[in-house]
Amino acid sequence: MPATLFDKVWDAHEILRGADGRSLLWIDRHFVHEGSFHAFDQLRDRALSVSRPDLTFGIADHYAPTLPGDRSTIGDPRIRSMVTQLADNTGRHGIRLFGLDDPRQGIVHVVGPEQGLTLPGLLIVCGDSHTATHGALGAIAFGIGASEVAQVLATQTVWQTRPKRMRLTVTGRLGPGVTAKDLALTWIARLGADGARGHAIEYAGEAVAALSVEARLTLCNLSIEGGARCGMIAPDAAALAYLRDRPMGPAGFDFETAAETWAALKTDDGAAFDREVTLDGATMAPTVTWGVSPEEALPIDGRVPDPATLDTAEAARQARETLAYMGLTPGQALTDIAIDRVFIGSCTNARLEDLRAAAAVLKGRRSRVPGVVSPGSTAVKRQAEAEGLDRIFTEAGLAWHDSGCSLCVGMNGDRVPAGERCASTTNRNFKGRQGPGARTHLMSPPMAAAAAVAGRLYDVRDLSGCDL
Amino acid sequence: MEPFRRLSAPALALPLANVDTDQLIPARFMKAPRSAGYGGFLLHDLRVDADGAPVPGFPLNHPQATEARTLVARRNFGAGSSREAAVYALVDFGFRCVVAPSFGDIFAANAVNNGLLPATVPEADLEAILALMGEAPTTMDVDLESGTLAVSGRTFPFSVPETWRAKLLNGWDDIGLAQQHAAAIAAFARDRQRAHPWVIPAMSGPAAVPPQAQIPRPSPTQS
Ligand code: SF4
C-alpha cells in the first residue's frame, strides 16, 4: 500500500503497540539540555540509570551566557548552577556533553544537523518543542515533556499515539526577499496557531524543494508554532550534499549504504493524507507579527487590525488587549511601528545563511537601534568570523555575541526591557517571552536587518542596493 | 500516578484564548527544583503587576481561587513550549482538570503524565459553560468514565483521546509500561543496529567543527 514519508519512518521505529493502542517507539537520538534536570531528578528518585548514553547528547544552550568573554565564570549563581547541573547529570550517566567550552556547542537544533547527528529516517526527540527542526532532513523529530524525557533516558523508547498526517504543498517560487520564515509565518497566519494541531506535516512542492537545507530547517522549526507535532521534508540531492562529511555522521561506505536506504524516504504516489493544504509561494511577501501569537502575522505592507471591524465581541476584546500589550493603535501601518532594538539569533534563524542574509542588508549601513547578533552555534560563529560577517554587524553598531538561546527565551539573563519593542528573528512573540513586558515582532533575518537600518518595521525589498 | 475517575470540585473560569506555556510559567522561574512547589509561579505575570501587587479582577486572584480544581479556558490552551513546568504550576496550584476547546499537543501529553485531565469540549459548549460560570469558582462535576461534565444543572460531553483516558483512569506509569517490554526493546535495538549500522553516531575521529564552508552561498532567489 502506498505510504507517506511519515508513516514509513514511524513504522520503522514501532517496537510494538500497547494494549491501549499507543506505539512504543525506538529513539535513535536524544538531546538533553539544562532544562532536562526535572527528568534526571525523576531518574534519581526512581533509582534508574540511562539506557543508551551513546545515543544521548547533552548541550548547554538555554542558559548559556552569550556576552563575549569568559564563559567559565557565570555571575548569576542560579544560572551557573543550571549549567553545572547539566554537566553533573551528563557526567554521572556517561552522556557526551557539548559544554560551554566545546567547539561543538550551540543551540541544540542547530548543532544536531551541523554535527551529522540528525540524519534521514531517524527518530529524534528532545525536551524542547522546536525539535521539529530536525525533520528538515527527513527525520521524525518532536518535542517531549520532562516525564517523557525520563522515559527515553531510562528505556530509549517513548509511548506515542500516531498523529494524523498533513501535507502542506507550496507551489510556485518565493520571490526575492521572501524567506522560509515568511513562508512559515504566512501559513501559520492563515491556518492559525493551532491549525495543524494533532498532525505531522510533510512540506512539499516547488517552493519547498527550492529551499536550501538551512532554510528547510527554519521552515520545519516553526511547525510547532502552527500547532503541528512535527514537520518533515523528504531528503533529496540537496539534503544528501548537506549530509556528506558531517563530523558525527556516517562516512565512506557507511554513507553510501545509508544513502541507499534514504532514497526510499519519500511519500509514495497515491499515499493518503488526513489533510492536504496548498498555498501559492509566489504570492507570499515578507511577513512580520504584530501581536502575541505567531498567528498574528501580516505581510509587511499591511496594517494592524482595528478591533471595531472584527466579527465577534470576543475577537474584538482579544485584539484590543493584544494592541494594548503591544502598544499599537488600531489600523496602524506596520511600517509605522518604530522599534527599540533588534535580535538576530535562535534555532530558527541563526545559521550561517541567516547571518549572511542579515549581513548583506547591513553591509555599509548603520543600525539606528541597539541590537545583538548571537550565532546559532560556536561553529557558525567561527565561520561567520572567517567570512568577516562579525565586522559587518559590529560596524553597523550591533553587538556580536557567543552562541546560545539568549533573547529567544531570556533564560540566561538577556532581556528586552519592559515596554521596549524588539525586531526579532526568533519563533515566539508570546507575552513576556523576551522578558516581562517585552514586545516582540517576529521576522526573517533580512527583515530584522532592514528594521535595524530603518529604526522601524520596514520592507527589506525597498532598501536600495540590497542583494536579495 | 493516582488514578483519575471523578472530580467534583469548584471550577474557575479563565476566559482567555492562546494561554501559552510562557504565560503559564514564565521562563525565569524554571530553575527551581520541583520540590520547591511551582504553584506560586502559575500565570505569574498576568496575576501580579510589575511591582508584585495582585492584578485586581484576574481570575486566579479571586479569594476562593485556591479551592478550584478545574480550570476553564478558551482555545489553544498550553500552546508553545514543551516545558512540563507549565503543568507542574497548574498541578501545584491545585488543578486536576483543564477544560478548553483545544490544547497544545505537548502540553496535553505532559498534563496526562501528571494526572491532570485535559478535557476538550466544542467551542460552542465552552462558551455555554463560561456563561453558566460566574467570576467566583462554581462547582463542576467531571466524570472521566462517562466523559461528561456538569455545571449549574447542565451536562456537557467532553472528549479525551482513548489512550489517555485509559491511562488516567488506571493511573498507569509509562516507564513501568515500557519496562514490561524490555526483551522486545532489546531485540529491536539489536536488529536495527544490525540492519542499519549507520544509525549509530560516529564516536571516534576528530572533534572537528563541521564543514560550514561547504554550504553554498544562497543564490539570489533563495535569500
Ligand atoms: S533558541 Fe529558543 S526556541 Fe530554540 S531551543 Fe533555544 S529557547 Fe528553544
Automatic annotation (TrEMBL), chain A:
Q: What is its EC number?
A: 4.2.1.33
What processes in GO biological process is this protein linked to? Answer: L-leucine biosynthetic process
Reaction(s) the record says it catalyses: (2R,3S)-3-isopropylmalate = (2S)-2-isopropylmalate
Q: Which UniProt keywords apply?
A: 4Fe-4S, Amino-acid biosynthesis, Branched-chain amino acid biosynthesis, Iron, Iron-sulfur, Leucine biosynthesis, Lyase, Metal-binding
Q: Which GO terms describe its molecular function?
A: 3-isopropylmalate dehydratase activity; 4 iron, 4 sulfur cluster binding; metal ion binding
Which stretches are transmembrane?
none
Could you tell me which Pfam families the record lists for this protein? Aconitase
Q: Which residues form the Aconitase/3-isopropylmalate dehydratase large subunit alpha/beta/alpha domain?
A: 7-455
Q: According to its UniProt record, which cofactors does this protein need?
A: [4Fe-4S] cluster
Q: Which InterPro entries match?
A: 3-IsopropMal_deHydase_lsu (IPR004430), Acnase/IPM_dHydase_lsu_aba_1/3 (IPR015931), Acoase/IPM_deHydtase_lsu_aba (IPR001030), Aconitase_4Fe-4S_BS (IPR018136), Aconitase_4Fe-4S_dom (IPR036008), IPM_dehydratase_rel_enz (IPR050067)
Q: In which pathway does it act?
A: Amino-acid biosynthesis; L-leucine biosynthesis; L-leucine from 3-methyl-2-oxobutanoate: step 2/4
Family matches, as SUPFAM superfamilies: Aconitase iron-sulfur domain
Subunit-structure text: Heterodimer of LeuC and LeuD.
Free-text function comment from the UniProt entry: Catalyzes the isomerization between 2-isopropylmalate and 3-isopropylmalate, via the formation of 2-isopropylmaleate.
NCBIfam families recorded = leuC, PRK05478.1, PRK12466.1
Q: What is this protein called?
A: 3-isopropylmalate dehydratase
Species whose genome carries this gene: Roseospira goensis
UniProtKB/TrEMBL annotation, chain B:
Pathway note? Amino-acid biosynthesis; L-leucine biosynthesis; L-leucine from 3-methyl-2-oxobutanoate: step 2/4
Q: What is its EC number?
A: 4.2.1.33
What is any one GO biological process for this UniProt entry? Answer: L-leucine biosynthetic process
Catalytic activity, as annotated: (2R,3S)-3-isopropylmalate = (2S)-2-isopropylmalate
User: Which cellular component, as a GO term, is one annotated location?
Assistant: 3-isopropylmalate dehydratase complex
Q: Which UniProt keywords apply?
A: Amino-acid biosynthesis, Branched-chain amino acid biosynthesis, Leucine biosynthesis, Lyase
A GO MF annotation of the entry reads: 3-isopropylmalate dehydratase activity
Question: What general EC class does the enzyme of this chain belong to?
Answer: lyase
A family per Pfam: Aconitase_C
> Where is each Aconitase A/isopropylmalate dehydratase small subunit swivel domain found?
13-123
Q: Which domain of life is it from?
A: Bacteria
Q: What does this protein do?
A: Catalyzes the isomerization between 2-isopropylmalate and 3-isopropylmalate, via the formation of 2-isopropylmaleate.
Please report which protein family the annotation says this sequence is part of: Belongs to the LeuD family. LeuD type 1 subfamily.
Please give the subunit comment from the record.
Answer: Heterodimer of LeuC and LeuD.
Mind telling me what this protein is named? Answer: 3-isopropylmalate dehydratase
